Write the structure tokens for this entry.
Amino acid sequence: MNILILGATGRVGREIVALALRERLHVTALVRTPAKMNYTDENLTLIQGNALNKDDIRRSIHGMDVVVSALSTDGTTTLSESMPLIMEAMKTEVKKRLVTIGTAGILQSRTSPAILRYQASESKRKSTRAAEEHHKVYNMLKQSDLEWTIVCPAYLSDGERMEKYRVERDFLPEGGSVIAVSDTAEFTYRQIHSSEYIKSRVGISY
């Protein structure tokens, strides 16, 4: 299997790369700074480029079976600007499977199910900018014919991998507030082999 990972030098992306290489998948990573990727493996191909560059996205997706996006917001509009490029390139390549990292903010609110968590009082974050970016991406994917899954973790910690966590479609598991980067990466990675959550948001937490 050939897998493209975007955001491969980030906290979650780096862990997904490691998991894929461990299973001997052929991994391609589009990275702005290859030196930040401290993995070397015969099955790892680094392409230097930018997720906001149409040609870089197109050449990276060529020949891939699955695309995994672990791009972060980082105070920018990278998410919402890159997704149309990703979707167009995948359409051209006749590829369908896309797994992306979102945020718990775009899951449905338990207290007000008609709106999203970041729009409701249950969200404790003072800024909604990142959630608004993820919301834009969610709206784009809902209107596409891609086989997408958005993994929506609770607060990401750098704690040790627990290997036991809860997941729920469309909602954050009740009472959930945190999930380790490593467990988030493991669940996200498993989605490339699964069709259980196609066209779904999935909340994940301890």
Remarks:
- The first strand starts at residue 2 and ends at 6.
- The two ends are 30 Å apart (CA to CA).
- The CA atoms of residues 59 and 133 lie 25 Å apart.
